[in-house]
Specification:
Blueprint: E1 2-3, H1 7-18, H2 24-35, E2 45-46, H3 47-54, H4 65-80, E3 89-94, H5 100-112, E4 120-126, H6 129-137, E5 139-140, H7 150-156, E6 157-160, E7 163-166, H8 168-171, E8 174-178, H9 181-187, E9 193-197, H10 207-220, E10 221-228, E11 242-247, E12 250-255, H11 293-310, H12 314-323, H13 328-337, H14 341-350, H15 357-369, H16 373-385, H17 390-403, H18 407-420, H19 425-437, H20 441-457, H21 460-466, H22 472-485
Parallel strand pairs: 3-4, 3-9, 4-8, 9-10
Antiparallel strand pairs: 1-2, 5-7, 6-7, 10-12, 11-12
Helix pairs in contact: 2-3, 4-5, 9-10, 13-14, 13-15, 14-15, 15-16, 15-17, 16-17, 17-18, 17-19, 18-19, 19-20, 20-22
Length: about 500
C-alpha cells in the first residue's frame, strides 16, 4: 500500500490506519518524505517508509528495570495462581520494536522465577516490518545490551564478532507479529492476556485511538490482568478501568473488576491546584557531560559584544554578525524570557527534524504555557522514549503530574530529575513543596534547604532559563515561605 503525497493526506491516513496523531518531530519527518524525489516523479510514498517516519524504535535490553522486576517477582507468580495449574501465562509486548523488551521478559523470568519461565507465551507486536525481522534474527549490538549485566550477557548471549546473539531457548519463548495494535485488539479473543506491555506507544495516539486502545486492553486482559505503560505515561483522567499499582519505584496498572470499574472519562487533564501559586514550567538543566545552555547563551552574548567592539567597517561587521548568529536554541530562550511564546514555537518548528532535542524540550514548555497539556505530555514522553533530555523531561512531567494532582508520580519525576542532575535546584524546590503538603516535614525541609542553597548560588543565566520567567528573588521567597511554614527560621541569603 502507498501513501498520498500531501501532508494533510498523510496525517489523515496515519490517524485512520494506525491511530497515530503525528507530533512535532513526526511532522518534520513527514515533510522530509514529501521533499524527497520519488522513484517516479509525483509517485506515491511506500507505506513502509511512512511507518518508519512516524514510529520511534529506540530501545534496549532491561529498560526501566523496576517494571521488569515487578513483572517477574510479583505479577507472574500471582497470575500463575489464577486458573488451571500449569497453564500458559500470555504476555503481549505492544510496540516491541526490534525485540529487546519481550526478550528481556523471557530472560528476567528465567533468572528470577525459573519454575514459571517455561510457561511464558510472549507475543511481540510492531508496525515496523524491518524491526520485526531484526527481532526474529535476535542479533544485537553492544549498545542494545548495555542495560544487561555482564553475567546476563555471558549466560544468555553468544558473541559473534561485535554482535550479541541471543540463545535459541530464549528466542523460542517469544513470537513476533508485524501489525497494527488497534486491529489486533479488535480481533483477539476476549480475556486472552495476563499482562500487556505497551510502553511509550499510547503517547503517539490520537484521543480517539487512545480510548479505543485502552478499551481494547480491558477486553483483551484476563480478569485482574496487568497493563504496563511507560513511567512517564498516566491514565489519570483518561480511563477508570484500571487501578494504579506502585511499589519499589515501579508504576503499572491492574484491571479493575467489572463491579469496581466505571466508564472511561474524557475529563480535562491537569487542573491546577488552587493552594499553591502557579509556577510555570521552567526549562531544564543541561544533561551530564553536555555543553550547558547557560554556556551557549553566554558564548552568544560574548560573540555579539566582541563583534560590536571590534568592527572596523560596516560590511565586515555585517558579515561577522551573520557568521556568529545565535543558534535557534539561543533565540528560542530569548523569546521565552520575553514571553514571546508564539514566536518561539515558530522557531522551534522551523528548525526541522535535525534540530537538537533541547528544542523539543522548549516545544513542550511552550505547549505547557499555552495550555496544550496533552501535546506537552506527548512531546516529553517522546523525548524519554528516545533517551534524550531526560533531566528536563522528568521535571516538566513532574509539573504536569502535580497539576493533575497525581502527587505520587509527580514526586517520582522530581526525584528522577534531581538524581540525573543533583545541581538542578527546581526539582528539589517542587519536591519539597509536595512533601510539605503531604505531611513529610523532615524530608521537605531537607529538600527545601538544599534548593535554597542551590538557588542562592546559581548563575543568573540559569535562573533566566530554568525559572520559567520568575526572578531569583521570587524563587528564593517562595522557597523561604515553604521553609517558614515548616517552622524553620529565616536566615540571610549567602552573598551572590
Amino acid at each position: 500500500m502507498n501513501a498520498p503525497r500531501d501532508a494533510k493526506g498523510i496525517e489523515d491516513l496515519v490517524e485512520a490506519r494506525f491511530g497515530l496523531a503525528p507530533s512535532g518531530f513526526q511532522r518534520d519527518r513527514i515533510e522530509m518524505l514529501l521533499g524527497e524525489k520519488p522513484a517516479r516523479s509525483g509517485g506515491p510514498i511506500p507505506l513502509e517508509r511512512l511507518v518508519e517516519a512516524v514510529t520511534v524504535g529506540e530501545t534496549y535490553f532491561f529498560r526501566e528495570p523496576m517494571q521488569i522486576d515487578a513483572l517477574v517477582r510479583r505479577v507472574l507468580p500471582e497470575r500463575a495462581l489464577v486458573g488451571a495449574r500449569g497453564r500458559k501465562l500470555r504476555i503481549l509486548s505492544a510496540g516491541c520494536s526490534s525485540g529487546e523488551e519481550p526478550y528481556t521478559m523471557a530472560i528476567a523470568a528465567e533468572v528470577a522465577t525459573p519454575e514459571l519461565a517455561p510457561l511464558l507465551s510472549i507475543t511481540g507486536l510492531d508496525l515496523n516490518g524491518a524491526a520485526i525481522e531484526k527481532a526474529r534474527r535476535a542479533r544485537y549490538s553492544s549498545w542494545a545490551v548495555r542495560g544487561a549485566s555482564q553475567g546476563i550477557r555471558e549466560r544468555f548471549f553468544k558473541k559473534d564478532g561485535e554482535t550479541f546473539v541471543l540463545e535459541p531457548r530464549m528466542q523460542g519463548r517469544v513470537s513476533f507479529e508485524e501489525g497494527n495494535l488497534l486491529e489486533l485488539l479488535a480481533r483477539v479473543p476476549e480475556a486472552t492476556y495476563d499482562v500487556v506491555f505497551c510502553r511509550n506507544v499510547l503517547i503517539y495516539f490520537s484521543e480517539r485511538a487512545l480510548h479505543r486502545a485502552l478499551a481494547g486492553f480491558a477486553r483483551a486482559l484476563l480478569p485482574g490482568g496487568y497493563l504496563f505503560l511507560g513511567h512517564s505515561e498516566s491514565l489519570r483522567g483518561i480511563s477508570d478501568d484500571y487501578e494504579l499499582v506502585h511499589e519499589n519505584d515501579a508504576f503499572y496498572y491492574r484491571l479493575k473488576s467489572a463491579s469496581a470499574s466505571s466508564a472511561s472519562t474524557t475529563a480535562p487533564l491537569f487542573p491546577r491546584p488552587p493552594s499553591e501559586p502557579p509556577m510555570r514550567a521552567p526549562l531544564p538543566a543541561p544533561e551530564e557531560g553536555a555543553v550547558s545552555w547557560a554556556e551557549e547563551i553566554q558564548r552568544s552574548t560574548e560573540r555579539i559584544a566582541r563583534i560590536a567592539e571590534t568592527r572596523e567597517v560596516e560590511g565586515a561587521a555585517s558579515q561577522a554578525r551573520a557568521a556568529e548568529r545565535p543558534s535557534a536554541l539561543a533565540r528560542v530562550l530569548d523569546m521565552l524570557e520575553a514571553e514571546r511564546h508564539d514566536d518561539a514555537l515558530l522557531v522551534v518548528t522551523a528548525a526541522g527534524p535535525d534540530a537538537p532535542p533541547e528544542l523539543e524540550l522548549c516545544r513542550a514548555a511552550i505547549y505547557g504555557e499555552k495550555g496544550r497539556l496533552r501535546d506537552a505530555e506527548r512531546t516529553l514522553c517522546a523525548l524519554l522514549a528516545r533517551g534524550q533530555c531526560e533531566t528536563g523531561a522528568h521535571y516538566l512531567l513532574g509539573l504536569l503530574r502535580e497539576n493533575e494532582r497525581d502527587i505520587e508520580r509527580a514526586a517520582w519525576h522530581y526525584g528522577e530529575a534531581k538524581r540525573r542532575d543533583p545541581r538542578f535546584s527546581l526539582p528539589r524546590l517542587r519536591l519539597g513543596m509536595v512533601l510539605r503538603r503531604s505531611g513529610q516535614g523532615e524530608r521537605a525541609r531537607a529538600e527545601l534547604e538544599h534548593a535554597l542553597e542551590l538557588l542562592e548560588r546559581e548563575e543568573r543565566a540559569r535562573i533566566v532559563m530554568f525559572g520559567g520567567g520568575f526572578r531569583r528573588e521570587v524563587l528564593l521567597e517562595l522557597c523561604k515561605a515553604q521553609l517558614c511554614s515548616l517552622g524553620v527560621p529565616q536566615r540571610d541569603p549567602s552573598p551572590v
